[in-house]
Each structure stands twice: as C-alpha cells, then as structure tokens.
UniProtKB/TrEMBL annotation:
Pfam families: Abhydrolase_1. GO terms for molecular function: monoacylglycerol lipase activity; phosphatidylcholine lysophospholipase activity. InterPro entries: AB_hydrolase_1 (IPR000073), AB_hydrolase_fold (IPR029058). It comes from the Eukaryota. This is AB hydrolase-1 domain-containing protein. GO terms for cellular component: endoplasmic reticulum membrane.
Length: 315
C-alpha cells in the first residue's frame, strides 16, 4: 500500500521527458525571422515550463492515486471526520478513539507521507493497537489528498495540521497533543512548528506538541532533491522550473525544528534508498535527540514491529 503507483508515475515521466525535449528543441533552434514568431515561441516555452512544473509537482506529491470520493473513507475501523481549516477548506481525517477517554488519554496526530492517504495508514495493525492503549489518534489528509478540498501549498498545509489541534482542544480540552510524522509528513510537522511559533499560537500551551516523533525525515527538501541526478538537469536546462519546484517544496526541516521545545525522537531505516539515514544523523547531531536505526527500508518501516514498540515505550 505504500508503494507508489508505477503506471501513473510511468505516464508522468513519459510526459515529462516529452516536455523537456520540446523545451530543448525551442531553446537550441535558430531564432524566428519575425517578431511575432519569437513572441509565440516564448509563450510556448513559458506554457511548457508550467506543464513540466505541474508534472514534477504531481510526481513529488504522488497525490493523484490518493484521491477518492468521500464514501471510500467510511470504514468501520475508524471514525471518518471532516475538519474545517482557518481558510475554510474541508479536509478529511480518520479518528481512532480509545474505549474510554480520561485524564491519562494521550492525543496523537499522525502526518503521513506522499503517495498515500488516511485509509492506507489506517490499515497498519500497530496503528490500530494504539487506540487500545488509551491513545486518541487522528490521521488527516492534507488539502489535495484523499477527499480533502483545495490545492496543496507549503504555506497553507500548516492550517490543516492546526485544524487537528483545534479538534482535540475544542472537543476534548486536550493539552498534551503529540505528532508522529512519516517521510514527507516529517517536513510538514516541522513546518507546522515554525508556523505556530511565528504566528504566536504557542502562547497557548495546548498548541505546543509535547512530543515529536519523526520517521524517515529529511533535513531539507533542497538537500534531498539534490541527491537525485535529475536535479542537475533541471538546474541548468530548466532553471525556471527548478525555481518553481523549490518555491513550492522548500521545506527546511532541520532549521524549522529550532522552534520546537519538546521531546524529539528520530527513527530511520538503515536500507532506505529514498531518504538516506544520514539525514536523521545530521538532525540528531544538531539537537542531541534520541535516534534509532532500524533494519528496514523506506517503504517497510511503518510495518516494523520494533518501531511501534519503541513508540509505545516513548508514551
């Protein structure tokens, strides 16, 4: 369930290659004889850059396969919720409730990665087990994922996470909310921390996560994407596209974590081919926090029994 849809990604890659070829042809062919033709070619170049950017954004988020109608999420294993963000966007969320809610109940928000939705995450057996141990677990789908409204934006996704805090605070008067982030969700977690601090929401202690658990984090999006060969192609052949991608996904996890004052825990798969464990090592070195390497890879870490045993022990 955590593997990206190969057919969709293959089509996107095919379209991307075609767009790049077209741009290269426009870039290196001789100039038009007329001013009108030059303007027309320039307009086409801008349009093609925009299309390439859209394809790359879709590949990074891989959110197309996560989209489902609202009826898809009516699952007996969790309560299906619709939360309203401060900018009036409806987002879907899965709620796992303990049998009884008391002063010892622990409130946790799980922020998933790309290419997945709340229903995928709900199928992890150990996630369900948390609710049996007095955990209240909320798994939101960010805007543009699942059946959530809106378009994904780095500057807006923090409002999706805040809506989860609002729900816990307003309905349960929760003051001890924690966050578990996985992969892309770790960047969203840290972005939320910075957003809440800069907008002074942390003056209310209920909005301060007491514990932050990051599974397979990356230090920054720029560093992560720079580890892939396609980066050099984008930088030098399509600089406008490169700049737009950086603007859209310029998550800076390691620096955003400077605003976090609670307990930080890191977990990473030793054989992770997508996000190298060196990213977690760098974060651990800076913040001197708990860090555990697990004998698994990026896709299977959420299925690792030792991970969930560690998480249960943390709480």
């Amino acid at each position: 369930m955590f593997f990206k849809n190969k057919k969709i990604r293959g089509e996107m890659l095919k379209n991307l290659i075609l767009k790049i070829r077209l741009n290269l042809r426009n870039l290196f062919t001789t100039k038009s004889h007329s001013k009108a033709e030059e303007i027309n070619n320039q307009d086409n170049l801008i349009k093609n850059n925009s299309k390439i950017s859209c394809i790359l954004k879709s590949m990074i988020l891989s959110n197309i396969r996560t989209k489902q109608p609202a009826s898809y999420f009516f699952n007996s294993s969790y309560k299906n919720l619709t939360l309203i963000t401060d900018d009036n966007i409806k987002i879907g969320a899965a709620l796992f409730e303990p049998e009884f809610v008391d002063k010892q109940t622990k409130y946790v928000i799980f922020l998933h990665g790309s290419a997945t939705n709340r229903d995928d995450i709900s199928e992890i057996g150990d996630i369900k087990f948390l609710s049996k141990n007095n955990f209240m677990l909320l798994i939101p789908d960010y805007r543009d994922f699942g059946d959530s409204e809106g378009t994904f934006e780095k500057d807006k996704v923090s409002l999706d996470v805040k809506a989860c805090f609002d729900f816990f605070i307003e309905k349960y008067s929760a003051v001890n909310v924690s966050i578990i982030g996985f992969s892309f969700g770790t960047a969203i977690s840290a972005e939320f921390i910075k957003f809440m601090h800069k907008n002074r929401y942390f003056l209310n202690d209920a909005y301060k996560p007491t514990t932050l658990i990051l599974i397979s984090p990356f230090t920054s999006f720029i560093k992560l994407i720079s580890e892939f060969k396609i980066t050099s192609v984008l930088k030098y052949i399509l600089p406008a596209v490169w700049k737009e991608i950086l603007y859209t996904f310029n998550f800076d996890t390691i620096n955003n974590l400077e605003y976090f004052t609670g307990n930080l825990y890191l977990f990473h798969g030793e054989y992770d081919p997508l996000i190298k464990s060196s990213h977690s090592e760098e974060i651990q070195k800076k913040f001197n926090c708990y860090f555990k390497i697990l004998q698994t890879d990026h896709m299977r870490i959420l299925l690792n029994d030792n991970l969930w045993k560690e998480i249960e022990n943390i709480f």
